[in-house]
Structure formats: structure tokens, C-alpha cells
Amino acid sequence: MKITRVTEQVSLKRTIDQGTSAQREIVVNILKQVQEQKDEALKRYTAQFDGVELSSLLVTEQEKKRAYELVDADMLSTIREAADNIRDYHERMVEQSWMTTKEDGTILGQKVTPLDAVGVYVPGGLAAYPSSVLMNVIPAQVAGVKRIVMVSPPGKDGALPAGVVVAASELGVKEIYKVGGAQAVGALAYGTETIQSVDKIVGPGNIFVALAKREVYGLVDIDSIAGPSEIVVLADDTAKPNEVAADLLSQAEHDKLASSILVTPSMKLAEAVKEEVERQVESLPRKEIAKPSIDNHGAIYVTGSLEEAIEAVNQLAPEHLEIMTESPLELLGSIRHAGAIFLGRYSSEPVGDYFAGPNHVLPTNGTAKFSSPLSVDSFVKKSSIISYSQQALQKNVSKIAAFARLEGLEAHARAVEERFKK
């Protein structure tokens, strides 16, 4: 990791991977084929990209039973406890419909309605992600979504990872399909003979999944265009270098494009963390992923003061932010932009990834400046309620008509005036 002194205002924001024109062309073609050929296209692309011929896309009851046999009792208990924590946290977010009345008979309000159907994409490939199942499905259930569909790419054996199937089964997800990539996004957006279309698609994936979500946005809603994972650690001299290094590597092992950054006013800590990262990465099972991530996208920024370090963090607007300082809670008010904020040495980022309860689907690539974590609100829509009485409209008809004519919309003006013509 390179140590850089931040002596002046610099742009630390990462660029978002928009994909190449060739990648977009591939995705557009896949989506077109799925729209036209439906299940046939899904099975063909699954054979081509995942190397497995499937007779059925749906995960069967027998496959679910087999998955439970492969997950030990302790792990099952942990999945259930994590699910309880996540559900408890999200239940506190539920927003109710409301109405208010005025003396003139006006009724105004807001109606909160859950989406009818949601598709959850669970990535495969380099690792299995039961936690992604919990984090995407539970807030949708809490919001009141009736139909939740899960898609995930199968392994070479034609099965999904046991932990993924068990996590979905524990939550009561009935529709679990063995299909991934851009073709899965197409199935959720357009529908096929087997997979009925949904209203919104959530969940992370590779660049082809991200591009496919971008292409179908408008026909359906999406959560976001997620980039590679990222962590920023804001630390002072009280932080322990071995712990900071371990936390930086926890993100580096996700993806060669993942970003792990330390921001600190302490050159002593910076040098110690650099040394620790270089030592710890050598013993990681996923060294072939973590080392390129650290070498190419990792960084250590040394600032002139803690205040400058905080400003650098706000520029980065990281997905995950750990504050490992003497008094982390005192700095919380100064943090304007971060997806999730972890306070103190015992709040390591994996605590939020798996167990604490807050959602781990977070804004990446600096989008925390204007975006929020996945939540119950992501799975509802809101309708405005307006009811004017005769008295209320009569009192305001001339003002409304004048506003309409100011904008050159005579029919709007006449629409309110028509009620009071003699």
C-alpha cells in the first residue's frame, strides 16, 4: 500500500465502472434473447456461462432438504439469530400511512403500499453469500411484499450453495431459481414461462448484472448500480495496527477491484499498518484476490490533523467507514457521507456484514453523498392523498386558476373554475 501525504484539498472520489461498449453489447443481446426465447435462453446461457445443463430452473424440495443436511446445527442457529437481529432492526423502520384534516374540510395524507413482487439477485462465483439473502429478503418481508423471487447462478454440480438455499428456506422464500448473470435480470424484468416478472430487482452482482439492471431500469425499479466493495478506516494513534490491517483486508478479499483505505493524521500508524497489511495478506486463503486489491486500489492517506482526515473521509463518502479513534462517538456528528459507520475497535465491519442487524447493501463509489442503505423504504411506494371540500376549493379557486394561467395552462384554470359556474 502506498502512503500519501494529503497536504491540500484533493479529489479522492473513485470513478464508477460503466462497463465497456463490448460488455454492454453482450448484455443487450442476452436481454433480447431472454425476452424472445424465455426459458430456452435461460438454460442455454446457464450451460454457456455456468457450465451446467439444467432440466429445471426451480430449486426443488429435495434440493432444499439436501441443503439442510449440508449445513451443521451451529451454523443454522447462527443464520437464525442473524435473521432475528436483521428483522428486529428493520421492523423499527416501518412507516405508516397517515392523514390530517383541516377546519375547512381539507384532508391530506400519504398512503404507504408495499410492492407486489420483488426479485432478489444473490451472487455466486467466487463465494457463497447467505448473508445477501438475509439482507435483501428480510426488509422486503417487513415492508409487506407478498411475492419474493430469488435467483442465483448454480455451481458446476447444478446446485446452489447449501447456505444460500437454507437461508432462503428459513425466510420462507418459495421461488428460488438456479439462474444468474444478465439472463437472470432479464427473466425478472420480462418474465419467462417459469419465472413471472417482478416490479423491482435488488442485490449485487458482477459488471454484467449491473449493466443488465441499468438496461431494464424503467420497466422495473432497481436498488442501485453497485460497484466493488470499499472500506475506509479513520484512525488515530490509539488504533492498533494489526486490527486496522485486518479490517482493510476484510474488504480486499472480496474482489480484485475492492478498495481499502486508511485515513489518519499519524505517520507512525500509517507505517505500522502498511507493514501489517503486507504481513497478513501473505497468509490469506484468498491472497490472489486480496493482494491485487491492496496493490492497485488500496491506499493510506496521512493528513495534517484529525479535522483534515474527517474532511478526506467525507470526500470519499465510503460504503463502510470504521472510526477507530480515542473517542469515536464524538466524531460521528462530523461525518456527513458514509453508507454504514462502525464506531470503535469492537465494531469491526464484518459485524455489520453478517450479524448486528443494519443492512449491508450500501451505496458505493461515493454515492453515499446522496444515497442510503437498502431498507424497508426500498420496498414500498407512497401515494399522496388530497381531498378538498367545496368550502376549501371555493376559498382557493382564484389562486389556483391564477397559478395555472401564469404557466399558460388555461385548461387547468378552467378545470377548477368549472365547479363554480352558475
UniProtKB/TrEMBL annotation:
Question: What's the EC number here?
Answer: 1.1.1.23
Which cofactor does the UniProt annotation name? Zn(2+)
The catalysed reaction is:
L-histidinol + 2 NAD(+) + H2O = L-histidine + 2 NADH + 3 H(+)
Q: Which domain of life is it from?
A: Bacteria
The processes (GO biological process) annotated in the record are: L-histidine biosynthetic process
Q: In which pathway does it act?
A: Amino-acid biosynthesis; L-histidine biosynthesis; L-histidine from 5-phospho-alpha-D-ribose 1-diphosphate: step 9/9
**Residues forming the catalytic site:** 319 (proton acceptor), 320 (proton acceptor)
Q: Which family does it belong to?
A: Belongs to the histidinol dehydrogenase family.
Name of the protein described by the UniProt record: Histidinol dehydrogenase
Origin organism is Priestia aryabhattai
